[in-house]
Amino acid sequence: MSRHPATNGTGVTWFTLFASTGTLVCCALPIIFVTLGMGAAVASMTSAFPFLIFLSKHKIWVFAFSAVMLAISGWLMYRPGRSCPTDPELAARCASVQKWNRRVFWTSVIIWSVGFFAAFLALPLRKLLEG
């Protein structure tokens, strides 16, 4: 069974969602928990999932990798010459896949942006505003 070009990239889009969610787990959630006074929750999270410490120490690479994945996913979805087949049934499937790919992609972009803000911009902005 051959796949239509419109469905190519679906796996990349879902992997991008996974990669961008990693930015929240490594960086944004611990910062938010500590800000809300739930430092004990962060301590228990890092003891239960020690890989979170590794991700936090290498957050620049985590964000860079997920940004590259977002760029690849975006290019696969919005590249020129992408079209659906003329067969009505296949065209409907193709349109549905494209719609879901776009939803997952933009959800990934929002998640990545929240993580980036929390990991790299929140503290400098707070220091700037406190004077």
Q: Which features does this protein show?
A:
single chain; about 130 residues; mainly alpha; elongated
Write the layout of secondary structure elements.
Blueprint: H1 10-35, H2 39-48, H3 51-57, H4 59-78, H5 88-130
Helix pairs in contact: 1-2, 1-3, 1-4, 1-5, 4-5
Number of strands: 0
Unreliable spans are none
Morphology: elongated
Helix fraction, binned, reads: over 70%
Radius of gyration computed on alpha carbons: 19 Å
Mean model confidence by pLDDT = 84
What distance separates the N and C termini? 63 Å
Q: Helix/strand-derived class?
A: mainly alpha
Task: Give an account of the 3D structure.
- With about 130 residues, this protein is an all-alpha fold.
- The mean pLDDT is about 85.
- It has helices at about 10-35, 40-50, 50-55, 60-80, 90-130.
- Helix 4 packs antiparallel against helix 5 (about 90-130).
Quick summary:
With 131 residues, the protein is an all-alpha fold.
